[in-house]
Specification:
By secondary structure, the protein is an alpha/beta fold. Helices cover about 40% and strands about 15% of the residues. The protein has one domain: Aldolase class I (TIM Barrel, Alpha-Beta Barrel), CATH 3.20.20. Helix 5 links the parallel strand 3 and strand 4. The relative contact order is 0.15. It binds ligand V47. The site of ligand V47 has 21 residues, from strand 6 and strand 7.
Length: about 375
């Protein structure tokens, strides 16, 4: 990396930052803000691609997963969200356990290796519902990894059962929970949180849930919701808080930058802009790759940035294209026009067309090999 010749950037202020990044020196808060202030997208992308190349070469990860949202009933009223419903509102639903098991089995022919399970904060479902959901899925689909419940859900179960976060996680782990998804992080800055997701847990609790999960040997992911009212400084602060926890625990696997979708949200009415732009999406991918030097993976979530932009993101620092997601609700309720699922073949084509090498992974980034009729995870 140190040997690499830095090209003439249009924005010459990026040069000292590029020298640091190529020498594998840690970037500071000020560096992060300077990266966000720059419009030299090609320079940001070039630099992030060097880091991605050092970590993963041309290898590009994907998995075959299915999203399950057992309920959209939610006591919180986050302005950013189009998914949650009050219990008696039109469109509110809660799956009986058998229904959730049946839903999980649909589309089985794609040989799913992961269920991604998240839902609303339901006022009446007992904690046992979630334990039984995990246990029942594990019994029926023993080879499928269960990536379930955001830190917000875990903290909510802890609050209403009056059990410590650790106990909640232990019970779910014992039932078959494999890892935690990265949702609910939004933007950690309290002033922003007060507007976009008032009453949701703050940064301290979000980080505490993930720290506890890591201590119990569960891996997790992290996200950041951008493209609403946050500032450059808020984004950098968010990323560095994640980097600090990762220094402590090494439990995060993947960071996923999430573009805010405005449709059907209260927050959408407050801001004077529609969706994020491709420029903003690629910038967030590149800068997160540069600042999160201790995160193994950066995921391009095609559901939110479109398969086309996600494909380009693979050359701007991302090394993971989120799976062949079946039936996604959170983004589609917020107006995402993108398809709900890409087939394995479509994912392979996006990766190969970018000159990269597809690598099918399980949820812990181990290779999955397929023969015509079987699937094996190599450990
Ligand atoms: O927590 C909610 C965000 C998250 C909107 O861990 C919205 O592998 C945009 O966390 N516009 C859920 N975003 C998605 C998520 C995720 C996705 C893919 C992979 C992983 C992983 C995690 O979506 C929520 C919230 O931050 N969100 N509403 C909206 N209107």
């Amino acid at each position: 990396m140190q040997e690499e010749r830095i090209p003439e950037f249009e924005d010459s202020e990026l040069r000292p930052i590029a020298e640091k990044a190529l020498a594998e020196e840690r970037l500071t808060f000020e560096d992060g803000v300077a990266l966000y202030r720059s419009n030299d997208l090609l320079a940001l992308g070039w630099l992030a691609a060097r880091v991605r190349q050092r970590l993963h070469g041309t290898r590009t990860y994907f998995n075959v997963n299915r999203h399950i949202n057992p309920t959209n009933v939610c006591v919180a009223s986050c302005k950013l969200c189009a998914f949650g419903r009050k219990p008696d509102a039109p469109g509110a639903y809660t799956m009986a356990l058998e229904e959730a098991f049946q839903k999980a089995g649909e589309g089985w022919s794609e040989v799913v290796t992961e269920f991604h399970i998240v839902g609303g904060l339901h006022p009446d479902l007992p904690f046992d519902y979630y334990v039984d959901l995990i246990r029942g899925l594990k019994e029926r689909f023993p080879s499928v990894h269960l990536k379930a419940f955001t830190a917000v859900e875990i903290a909510y179960y802890s609050q209403y059962t009056r059990l410590p976060i650790r106990t909640i996680l232990e019970r779910l782990k014992e039932a078959g929970l494999g890892s935690l998804p990265g949702g609910g992080a939004e933007i950690f800055a309290p002033a922003v949180r007060r507007v976009i997701c008032d009453h949701k847990i703050g940064a301290h609790t979000w980080l505490k849930v993930h720290r506890t999960a890591h201590e119990l040997g569960l891996h997790s992911n992290a996200t950041m919701l951008y493209g609403h009212i946050e500032s450059d400084e808020d984004r950098v602060d968010h990323l560095l808080q994640l980097r600090n926890l990762q220094d402590e625990t090494r439990g995060f696997q993947t960071f996923i930058p999430l573009a805010f979708h405005t449709a059907n949200t209260e927050l959408g009415k407050l801001i004077d802009r529609r969706e994020t732009t491709g420029f903003m999406d690629l910038k967030n991918v590149a800068i997160s790759r540069l600042l999160l030097d201790n995160f193994p993976h950066i995921k391009a979530y095609w559901i939110m940035m479109t398969p086309r932009v996600a494909q380009v993101a693979l050359r701007f620092g991302a090394d993971d294209l989120d799976g062949t997601v079946v039936e996604e609700k959170i983004y589609h309720d917020a107006g995402a026009p993108n398809p709900q699922a890409l087939t394995r073949q479509e994912i392979l084509r996006l990766i190969r067309d970018a000159g990269l090498e597809p690598f099918e992974r399980d949820s812990l980034y181990r290779p999955v090999t397929r023969t015509e009729s079987s699937l094996t995870v190599q450990v």
